[in-house]
Amino acid sequence: MKGTGLFKILIGGLAAYELLGMMKAGNKTVLRPPGAVDEDEFLALCIRCGKCNQACPYDSIKMGKENLGFGIGTPYIDARDNPCRLCDDYPCVNVCPTDALTGINNVYDVEMGLAVIDTKHCIAYQGMRCEVCYRECPLIDEAIKLNIYVKPDDPTHAVFAPIIDPEKCVGCGICEERCVIENPVAIRVKPRVIKGIF
Ligand code: SF4
Ligand code: SF4
Ligand code: SF4
Q1: Which one of 25, 65, 66, 189 is separated from 167 by 20 to 30 angstroms, measured CA to CA?
Q2: Ligand 3 pocket: which of 117, 172, 192 to mutate (most atoms <8 Å of CB)?
Q3: What region holds the 4Fe-4S ferredoxin-type domain (predicted)?
Q4: What is the pLDDT of residues 101-143, one digit of tens each?
Q5: 164 has which bridge partners?
């Protein structure tokens, strides 16, 4: 079946994320901005200056105003609320004075996280046409692809199931913002904590 190899890679990536844990804001999982170094180093380097927050033209970067469990005053992105738009010039990274955000030469260096699909809640996996996350992804047909197959219990219909390639997904969160399913959203970005973990 098309995409079977990708599923195997995804399962490996998921296991790594479960081991690493996640940053939370209340009951939400949040992301570091693009170019963030590994989390321990980030917390040491970030001087909470807010320049990345001010530089973002989309107001995607928020500053933790209370102890959210990942560093008071440090920058984060809540993908469901307002994801990273992957600017061509990454102004947030360019203004960072301490290299807490650094090392973006192309979009694949972003590595904010990995999108994970909840196949129990994704309506595409139940046989309905949707594909919003697929169409909205800036790396369409790279980071997210469609796995098209005949519905097992209904051979007259096809399933158009989105699948994530963990080698290409950069964790921008646009898919999570656009997902049509609520409580719970059917695609979430799990934050990367160590560069290159997937
Ligand atoms: S790349 Fe652009 S949209 Fe994304 S956080 Fe940085 S400034 Fe904001
Ligand atoms: S610009 Fe850099 S040092 Fe300043 S808050 Fe953002 S990540 Fe931290
Ligand atoms: S987080 Fe979603 S929208 Fe962004 S690259 Fe990954 S699959 Fe595409």
Answers
A1: 25
A2: 172
A3: 35-66, 73-106, 160-190
A4: 999 999 999 999 999 999 999 999 999 999 999 999 999 999 9
A5: 144
88 in any annotated domain: yes
- What number does the ligand 3 atom closest to the CA of 140 have? 8
33: nearest Cα among 171, 166, 167: 171
| Model pLDDT for residues 32-65, shown as the tens digit of each residue | 999 999 988 999 999 999 999 999 999 999 998 8
Residue 196 belongs to a domain: no
Q: Is residue 112 part of a domain?
A: yes
Q: Which ligand is nearest to the CA of 165?
A: 3
Place of tokens 């790396």: 139
Question: DSSP 3-state assignment of 189?
Answer: strand
Number of structural domains in the chain? 1
- Asked whether residue 197 is domain-assigned, the answer is no
Token pair 């979009």 is at which residue? 107
Q: Whose alpha carbon is nearest atom 5 of ligand 1?
A: 84
CATH number at residue 148: 3.30.70.20
